[in-house]
Specification:
It is a single chain. Helices cover 22% and strands 19% of the residues. The strands form three sheets. The chain has a four-stranded antiparallel sheet with strand order 2-1-3-4, with no helix packed on it. With 262 residues, the protein is of the alpha/beta class. It is built from eight helices and nine strands. The longest helix is centred in the middle third of the chain and has 12 residues.
Length: 262
């Protein structure tokens, strides 16, 4: 059971479906405004608790802005990361992609959660590259999922590769934000069809005329609406990191409230 709590009053509750280990899902709990008990404009604490019987499995806290008398609404922006469980490999395998893009797979559910909404999506470029690098051997469900992602009207921005900790290397002494090494090693030309209608070049290369073999840049290319926005790990950014993030072309970042205060 998921409970939204204000002070000691439960204002909404819903049933949380069974979730496999290391996966996630989105659960909605709606509360009528009359049940909130907010008496004046201001910031109000909200807690969400997941419980099984009398056992508390987890609790998260946030705050909402209540503007009961203002003529204009309080602006709120919502962002959601499009990610998969962490792993040790550079790319997702065909088997993993098949699992994640199955009808009840995590990527399928994440995409359904944001479709036709005003939610901005942070996309892990490893997911895109993992589908593209498989060429004609990519699972059909993964290819269809990528097409669906391409068709969304949501605002989008890139996450770090594999949603990794963007600033941890900086704190370890690295002088600049790390970027993934060249992905050329993973490109197998045999997985991509040849365009027979084009005139072949004497020495075909990746991306050359007559071939559909992608370049490393092709694997991660995406038409982000906010390409210079990043989402560092919670409470991970220090003041000294800001110039280095700026040098990497990052002009905006999503930070937790506690990170902004620190």
């Amino acid at each position: 059971v998921s409970k939204i709590t204000t002070a000691d009053t439960h204002v909404a509750r819903t049933v949380v479906p069974a979730i496999s280990s290391q996966l996630s899902t989105t659960v909605a709990a709606e509360a009528p405004a009359s049940a909130l008990g907010f008496t004046s404009s201001g910031e109000y604490a909200v807690a969400v608790t997941v419980a099984s019987g009398s056992t508390i499995l987890g609790t998260a806290r946030t705050a909402v802005s209540w503007n009961a008398t203002g003529a204009a609404p309080v602006p709120v922006a919502i962002a959601l990361p499009l990610t998969v469980p962490a792993g040790n490999s550079g790319f997702l395998t065909a088997a993993q992609l098949t699992q994640y893009t199955a009808p009840n797979g995590i990527l399928t559910r994440e995409l359904a959660d944001v479709e036709d909404t005003q939610i901005a999506i942070g996309i892990d470029p490893r997911i895109i590259a993992s589908i593209r690098v498989l060429g004609k051997s990519a699972p059909a469900t993964a290819q269809a999922w990528l097409d669906s992602l391409q068709g969304l009207q949501n605002e989008t921005f890139p996450l770090a590769w594999a949603d990794s900790d963007l600033t941890a290397p900086l704190h370890a002494g690295v002088s600049a934000v790390l970027t993934p090494k060249s992905l050329a090693y993973a490109i197998n030309p045999n997985l991509f069809p040849v365009n027979r209608d084009s005139t072949p070049t004497p020495t075909p290369t990746a991306g050359a005329s007559g071939s559909t073999v992608p370049t490393p840049a092709d694997l991660v290319a995406w038409d982000y609406t906010m390409p210079a926005l990043e989402w560092p790990a919670d409470d991970s950014v220090e003041p000294g990191d800001l110039d280095k993030l700026g040098d990497a072309g990052i002009t905006g970042a999503i930070l937790t409230s506690s990170n902004v205060r620190s």
